[in-house]
User: Which sequence fits this backbone?
């Protein structure tokens, strides 16, 4: 019996931490986003240099069209009031995108000089950026940053989160409201085209299901194929 417990203990030690195997051994970047006026009101995106990572979100108390219209999701109405469920899953962005994230962190001295502009601008949600690795650790939080690179980084990270949440919403619609897929995929194609949604490859699984499902509208299947093609870039 003792041998069995020892084997289980060693197996537990060998299991990777959150994210893909081996990723946690190197530098880690994280963005913690919160906005009580949106649903979800809180999400955390963790990334590693190879593009692997993890996404977690929880719904807020605000739901429906007002929640989506306030910012995250680009103002698209919620199909039949269906919200994205809570998300807790491993994800993967392109190595190029991850490289830009980590390079921005290093160029800005691991965010040690602060990010917030303290300007009177519309509330966009608090974005807490943090970096930790062999070369040090640091972080900052901001609603809006005067530094163009940091503001652009925040916008890009929100756009990635939007893609992941849209993917979760598509999964719910496929199961409960196939007609709602028409409006949702129309929005997704539009948002991917203007940058509100980035890293479409993070939701490749649900897009492949839509593209191959003969029971959904043909135009939904066509949009899914268009998005899949974009995600290869």
Assistant:
């Amino acid at each position: 019996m003792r041998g069995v417990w020892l084997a289980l203990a060693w197996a537990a030690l060998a299991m990777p931490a959150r994210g893909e195997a081996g990723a946690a051994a190197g530098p880690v970047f994280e963005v913690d986003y919160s906005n009580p006026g949106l649903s979800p009101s809180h999400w955390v995106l963790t990334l590693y240099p190879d593009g692997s990572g993890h996404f977690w979100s929880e719904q807020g108390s605000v739901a429906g069209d007002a929640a989506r219209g306030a910012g995250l999701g680009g103002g698209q109405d919620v199909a039949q009031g269906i919200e994205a469920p809570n998300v807790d899953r491993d994800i993967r962005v392109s190595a190029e995108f991850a490289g830009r994230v980590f390079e921005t962190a290093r160029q800005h001295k691991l965010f040690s000089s602060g990010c917030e502009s303290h300007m009177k601008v519309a509330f966009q949600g608090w974005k807490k950026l943090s970096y930790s690795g062999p070369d040090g650790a640091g972080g900052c939080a901001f609603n809006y940053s005067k530094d163009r690179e940091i503001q652009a980084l925040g916008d890009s990270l929100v756009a990635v989160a939007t893609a992941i949440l849209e993917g979760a919403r598509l999964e719910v619609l496929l199961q409960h409201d196939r007609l709602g897929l028409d409006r949702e995929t129309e929005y997704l194609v539009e948002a991917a085209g203007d940058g509100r949604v980035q890293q479409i490859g993070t939701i490749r699984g649900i897009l492949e299901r839509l593209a191959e499902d003969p029971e959904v509208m043909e135009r939904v299947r066509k949009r899914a194929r268009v998005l899949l093609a974009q995600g290869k870039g």
Summary: The beta strands are 28-34, 42-47, 52-58, 87-92, 126-133, 136-142. The helical segments are 2-14, 65-69, 95-107, 148-176, 180-194, 204-212, 218-231. The domain at 26-175 is CATH 3.30.1560 (Mago nashi protein). The first helix runs from residue 2 to 14.
